[in-house]
Amino acid sequence: MGRTYIVEETVGQYLSNINLQGKAFVSGLLIGQCSSQKDYVILATRTPPKEEQNENLTHQQKAKWDNLDEEWATEHANQVSRMLPGGLLVLGVFIITTLEMGNDFQNALRRLVFAMEKSMNKRRLWNFTEEEISERVTLHICSSTKKIFCRTYDIHDPKSSAKPADWKYQNGLSTSWLSLECTVHINIHIPLSTTSVSYTLEKNTKNGLARWAKQIENGVYLINGQVKDEDCDLLEGQKKSSRGNVQATSHPFDVKVLTQLLLNSDRRSTATVQICSGSVNLKGAVKCRAYIHSNKPKVKDAVQAMKRDILNTVADRCEMLFEDLLLNEIPEKKDSEKEFHILPHRVFVPIPGSTVMLCDYKFGDESAEEMRDHFIEMLDHMIQIEDLEIAEEINTACMSYSMNTEASLDNTDDEQPKQPIKATVILKIQQNIGLFRLLFFLSQFWTMATILILEL
Q1: Nearest one of 28, 51, 54, 52 to 41, comparing CA atoms
Q2: Distance (Å, whole) CA 286 – CA 305
Q3: 252: buried, middle or exposed (CB in 10 Å: 19+, 13-18, 0-12)?
Q4: pLDDT digits (tens, 9 = 90+) for 407-417
Q5: What is the pTM for the complete model shown?
């Protein structure tokens, strides 16, 4: 028997209201959560058309499925996946056509599902577990016959064939969710080895974040101040309604993360000397959120959702900063200069009619109108400016220059250090919840010996 997809009723209304406007088809993403027994779909969003696709559509849009732009749709999936808090995923794709599709189109959808998952997986600092559901869905709706075809593919099996699945609508699904919130303080040091100079700064940083990700994965998670067995019901001890059902709490669960110091590991550690051309330091605090459905939620599911939001939000901010620097072609600074940049900070917005909130990232020079427009473009749902919730407001960001000074995470005065560094670039972010600084030490003629503690 195939998978069952429980779908918010408003998703069905959204899909039925999509107008093809002379096009052969319209495609988009399905967003929700997987569970062992069934999957939940709470949002559908059409992929925005390319500008050139808005012109001369009639003679190009015959039932040729080559017009399904895999690269464009995959990029949309990447952008939307950044906007999902912990617990939510891009579950698959939908497509609305004027005709019932043949095998060629089904193969095109299959390739799209695998391409999307492969692209999104490259950006992640975590991997799916063997116990998790690895099936992704394709939903085809024929606008003329109103028929629905729901099929799934196993993304872990490149040779998997389509399996039929059930698609069932349910009213009020979006209100049956539990939320978890957490503030995580980070202090990550990433050396840039001279042996990896051929790598991009982005790749070097991601490799360094992978080591920190292990600490997050192996951390101890307190939920409302308690350590709970992972197989326990998250709502254990909650009050029951008159019907005997556990009532979902409207207050978010407070989560705290305790990470183990590498030096306290039971395994042997050793120190090695590595010649470095620089280093990256990440220090500060980030706001994290996760959501799980209230149908018999387990502690392990809640913890896993929160872990992945922590990893995603830190990795996404670094990736977006590098993209911004590359896009704006920031020139190299002269020796002994310190430059201050602003990392994007998180903005939350509710899904209309839902208790679940999605997120985006705002640079300092972006206005609320621009944020709203980006939400509308990516999600194809109306968003009000007053609904935007800025979780991390930036207080100050400055640019300074210094001669013969040593960069320090905590030293901001004019005190002269003992050992000068020839070239220093500091990216500093100060937020209302803490100081988030990204420091780049780049040297053209000098190298530094950095002692790393490597866990064996």
Answers
A1: 28
A2: 16
A3: middle
A4: 222 323 333 33
A5: 0.81
